[in-house]
Specification:
By secondary structure, the chain is α+β, with helices and mostly antiparallel strands. It has helices spanning 22-29, 32-35, 46-62, 114-130, 144-152, and strands at 6-8, 12-16, 71-77, 83-92, 95-105, 134-139, 156-160, 175-180. The protein has a single domain (6-183), classed as 3-Layer(aba) Sandwich (Aminopeptidase). The protein has five helices and eight strands. Strands 1-2-3-4-5-6-8-7 form an eight-stranded mixed beta sheet, with helices on both faces.
Length: 184
Amino acid sequence: MYENIYIETDRLEIRNFRKNDIEILQRIVNDEEIMKYVPFTEARSLDECNELMERIIRRYSEGTKDCFKGFLLLAISRETGEPVGFAGLYPATYDITQNELFYGVFDNFRGKGYAIEIGKAVIAFGFSRVGTNRIIATIDESNSISRSIVEKMGMQFESIIEDETAKDSSYEGELLYSIASDGC
């Protein structure tokens, strides 16, 4: 159901990953700055990235409106054709009834509003095409840049995730932000 996602913004094309994007995927998962606040990831070899890419691509066709499985999208500069970053929308591992936005931008594109542009586009897509009415983001408390970015996307701080609410302890202590479909 989500095999042909294409979102265009003023500066970006945001689309599904394709098999020939493997080097970009490997660059993402091995970028220490992008992965700094991702508690459940590790550097990956090319073979591991190929396996990950297969799962990413397979998931596009597995999800339905009734059983959303999530997706990972690649953001490309419309001007240069360079990869800018990525965004994903997935059911949160600590609560699969919640759809969680995440994103990352390569170093040479940081500080230029791309993360906000990517996030707003994926949020709008989530509301209009996925049919979700609420999207969350979880942010490490020490990550003030991401807090500012999600706030500029229109998200509001809700709470700090505590152990009893998080079935996945990697979320414990994270800041929970959200936006409702009427807030976009």
